[in-house]
Design goal:
This protein is α+β, with helices and mostly antiparallel strands. It has helices spanning 2-14, 29-38, 52-56, 59-71, 101-118, 135-148, 162-165, 168-176, 182-192, 216-236, 260-277, and strands spanning 80-86, 93-98, 153-158, 196-198, 201-203, 244-249, 252-257, 290-293. 46% of the residues lie in helices and 14% in strands. Helix 1 (2-14) packs parallel to helix 5 and helix 2 packs across helix 5.
């Protein structure tokens, strides 16, 4: 399986405009079993309360049944279990969505495929939830920009409620840039719309990709790659006469500018651009950034 994923990654790198038409078949019994083995046993259970240990009691039968349901498109992901955890340094709570164990297996399999493809496209200044990259790497990247380039002004921005409000239609459009396999796309759409259970009640998910789901980090990076990274690198930077650089870690990003007026221009462009062209009905927005002198 690793050889197949490596081949997909190689094709994606060599052919940046390639659209992959045959991917869903990669999620076979071998891959599902491999994903099961990779999952940690001490993680919280989903709405069905099935643990890894319980799933292993009839492992071969469970994997075979899961694969058959994926192959004939009868697989329906269960709603995620909504829990809340404290945000570091803040009084508010962060919502998490905990998938059922079997759904974790499927999400991990899909995330492996998506990572093999889109990791070849992601910008070098993107650090969050990527292989062999960490928050420390992002800090080093930011330090290098500040210390080695003519950067005097910083716009520090945070996308408020990003994971809860990702627009599903735009998410699918981003995926379709590289993926033409309708079976895989349909499967991802089902995961996005699987619903949320909270206090015993199931609510539909018309937007968002629940933070806590295994597939959410790669989906977030794909979305922000097209919505934010390319917009900054290929459109906004061309407008400036001075240096302009950015570092992004998941839904937090910092942009550095040589000139104050260009930092302010970007500041003023940021919110209306996102609201009018990328965010449906102003549902989520960029928190007011801070323009700081170094």
């Amino acid at each position: 399986m690793e050889t197949k994923l490596a081949r997909i990654a190689q094709i994606a790198k060599e052919r940046p405009k390639e659209k992959f038409t045959s991917l869903a078949h990669l999620i076979n019994e071998e891959m599902l079993l491999e994903c099961h083995n990779e999952l940690k046993a001490n993680k919280a259970a989903g709405v069905d309360e099935v643990t890894k240990a319980e799933y292993e009691e009839n492992l071969q039968e469970n994997i075979k049944r899961l694969h058959e349901s994926l192959k004939d498109m009868t697989y329906i992901p269960q709603p995620v279990r909504r829990v809340y955890i404290p945000k570091p340094g803040k009084s508010e709570l962060r919502p998490l969505g905990i998938p059922a164990y079997e759904d974790k297996i499927v999400q991990l399999a899909i995330s492996k495929i998506l990572t093999a493809i889109f990791e070849q496209d992601f910008m070098n200044f993107s650090y969050g939830f990527r292989p062999n990259r960490s928050a420390h790497d992002a800090l080093r990247g930011l330090n290098e920009i500040i210390m080695t380039k003519k950067i005097n002004w910083i716009v520090d921005a945070d996308i408020k409620g990003f994971f809860e409000h990702v627009d599903h239609a735009w998410m699918m459009r981003c995926l379709e840039v590289r993926i033409a396999d309708t079976s895989l796309l349909r499967l991802i759409a089902r995961i996005l719309k699987s619903g949320v259970m909270e206090n015993g009640e199931i609510s539909p998910t018309k937007e968002g990709t629940p933070q806590g789901g295994i597939i959410s980090p790669i989906l977030a990076n794909i979305y922000l790659h097209y919505v934010l990274d390319i917009w900054f690198e290929r459109i906004m930077k061309k407008r400036f006469r001075g240096n302009a650089e950015t570092v992004r870690y998941a839904d937090d990003f910092i942009c550095g500018f040589q000139y104050k007026e260009e930092a302010e221009d970007f500041y003023n462009e940021l919110i209306p651009t996102f609201r009018t062209s990328l965010i449906r009905n102003n549902i989520f927005h960029i928190q007011l950034p801070k323009v700081l002198s170094l």
